[in-house]
Design brief:
About 20% of the residues lie in helices and about 30% in strands. It contains 8 helices and 24 strands. The strands form 4 sheets. The chain has an 11-stranded mixed sheet with strand order 4-3-2-1-6-5-7-8-9-10-13, sandwiched between helices. Strand 5 (about 80-85), helix 2 and strand 6 form a beta-alpha-beta unit. Keywords: Calcium, Disulfide bond, Metal-binding, Secreted.
Length: about 475
């Protein structure tokens, strides 16, 4: 299997000004599989201003010539992130640039984008076979950089999407003690259910974290593997169809055709059929800089969706960039929003009634950084009897800081046959709120206080009553 046009893009932050420097290092293969003698690239600076590279910027890097690598912009004393795209993509895709820039905003480091676009084209069978070749070359590049720049293997972290996740695995199995691989929705066909030598697995690095976002059946055009492949595997929204993406075969095909025809661009429909598959790298990129930690909990998917497992007790982890900050292992579950920002803050509200009520409840959380919108806790009218506690799980996608008060609105049932049995003033005995991301439970001043029908009452935190 011949592979043509394997490119490496190194993105490095400038120490002097807030600019990015990009070196495109192109490794070509001739027809018989033998590599050419040199790696040729261009230095582009600054990329934000769109300055075109010139011959004066050109660097000649020969991995057989150690001095050429030492003379490059690669800094072996810094961390190095290597991002690897998947099937049908190439190194110029915007998501790669977005992730690279997010890394550089996080801290000063080396970011390498592996562009194997010529080897990732259809047919899929050949692209899948090429992953082993690309993985071997990634491993070789790392070995040369470690040797040439006195860098350490402990500086490297590989992030691969789709087929790129398996590329990272092949690279990792050739290296000793690669610290980390992040697999972003590893490709399913020809990999799921195979031996660990064929696919990404926990032995490929000291720590392997995997995000599954499109693990539905291949008959539904699911592209990602649902199988656990890491030390910790994250399943946002169950790990298959993501919120805001078309669900099911018919919906995916219909939206793909519509977007392709309406925009007169065959690639325009890719976002529909691959929407859930692509969410993995979108979630990961958001996790690099966003204050929301993408917290998830080790439990069953059903238990998590019902909000029954928000207490960590050592079983919490963080999807994406901060996954290595936790010692949790196994399958982890979380929910996301349907649009950016995707990360959720998880809350559990416990309300104990002093008298019975029947109706709908709405809550607004008031925080040190702002308030939430009104959140309907009971889409359908519910009955809460005297002395009983109602527990409601909900999420928001913005950081409101520390919750300082909880405002409840009560709308009594409009049923003429039942409404007379319930008072217009609903009295409470207790009110508590669990903020899962902060591992914090707060009590609020609700004892003996009431909420009037069609009215709202704000309850301050205990100690401020």
């Amino acid at each position: 299997m011949n592979l043509v046009g394997l490119n490496w893009t190194i993105v490095i932050n400038s120490d002097v000004v807030n600019l990015e420097r990009i070196i495109v290092i192109i490794l070509d293969y001739v027809g018989n599989g033998q590599e050419t003698s040199q790696i040729v690239g261009h230095l582009i600076m600054p990329i934000f201003q769109g300055v075109n590279p010139s011959t004066a910027d050109e660097q000649i890097l020969d991995y057989k010539n150690v001095s050429s690598i030492r003379a490059s912009s690669f800094d072996g004393s810094k961390k190095t992130k290597i991002i690897i795209h998947g099937y049908t993509h190439n190194g110029h895709r915007q998501w790669l640039q977005n992730m690279a820039r997010a890394f550089l905003k996080k801290e000063d480091m080396n970011v390498i984008i592996v562009d194997w676009g010529h080897g990732a084209v259809p047919p899929y069978t050949e692209a899948a076979a090429n992953t082993r070749v690309v993985g071997a070359q990634v491993a070789k590049l790392i070995s040369v950089m470690v040797s040439a720049d006195q860098s350490g293997i402990d500086k490297f972290h590989l992030i691969g999407h789709s087929l790129g996740a398996h590329v990272a695995g092949y690279a990792g199995e050739r290296l000793t003690h690669l610290p980390r691989i992040s697999g972003l929705d590893p490709a399913d066909p020809y990999f799921q259910g195979t031996d660990i030598k064929v696919r990404l697995d926990p032995t490929d690095a000291d720590f392997v974290d995997v995000i599954h976002t499109d693990g539905s059946s291949i008959l539904s055009l699911g592209m990602g593997a649902a199988q656990q492949m890491g030390h910790v595997d994250f399943y946002p929204n169950g790990g298959s169809e993501q919120p805001g993406c078309p669900a099911g075969l018919l919906s995916k095909i219909t939206q793909t055709v519509w977007h392709s025809v309406s925009q007169l661009d065959l690639l325009a429909g890719e976002g529909s059929v691959a929407c859930s598959h692509e969410r993995s790298y979108i979630y990961y990129t958001e996790s690099i800089l966003y204050s929301c930690p993408f917290m998830d909990i080790q439990n069953s998917k059903d238990e998590f969706s019902k909000g029954r497992c928000l207490y960590c007790d050592g079983g919490c982890s963080y999807m994406g960039y901060n996954a290595d900050k936790s010692t949790s292992r196994g399958s982890m579950y979380l929910s996301t929003q349907a649009a950016a920002p995707y990360c959720n803050f998880h809350y559990q509200l416990n309300i104990t009634a002093n008298n019975s009520m029947d109706g709908k409840l709405t809550v607004v959380l008031q925080g040190s950084k702002g308030n939430t919108d009104a959140i309907l806790l009971t889409p359908n009218e519910e009955v809460l009897s005297n002395g009983n506690t109602m527990t409601k799980f909900f999420t928001i996608n913005k950081d409101i800081g520390n919750v300082t008060a909880v405002a409840l609105r009560y709308d009594k049932t409009a049923n003429l046959l039942l409404g007379w049995a319930y008072p217009n003033a609903w009295s409470l005995m207790g009110l508590s709120l669990l903020e899962a991301e902060k591992h914090r439970m707060d009590q609020f001043c609700a004892y003996g206080k009431s909420v009037q029908n069609h009215g709202a009452t704000s309850f301050g935190m205990m100690g401020t009553c």
